[in-house]
Specification:
alpha+beta, 2 domains, two-stranded antiparallel ribbon, two-stranded antiparallel sheet, 2 helices, 4 strands
């Protein structure tokens, strides 16, 4: 008689097999996560640069030593590679 498997056990097995099969730069995803190769995404809403002249998600104009934001095109769910988390 076959042993029944709980949903939790099945999910854990699926996640484990998926982490071993997915490759990131020829490294299994599970190893990439544990080694720090992958970084967490910081959304614009959580970024300390959002709405400042350091923000990469807007068009800025400079006049008379003052910075003006001309157009901001990010939403709270966008992200970029230069984000820094708010403290």
């Amino acid at each position: 008689m076959q042993k029944s498997v709980t949903f939790k056990e099945l999910t854990e097995q699926l996640v484990k097999s998926t982490l071993e099969e997915i490759m990131v730069n020829d490294v299994p995803l599970g190893e990439a996560i544990n080694s720090g190769m992958l970084m967490p995404v910081i959304r614009c809403k959580d970024c300390k640069k959002n709405g400042t002249s350091d923000c990469a998600m807007g068009y800025w104009a400079y006049a008379d030593n003052v910075v003006y934001m001309k157009k901001k095109w990010n939403t709270e769910y966008d992200f970029c590679s230069r984000a820094e988390r708010k403290e």
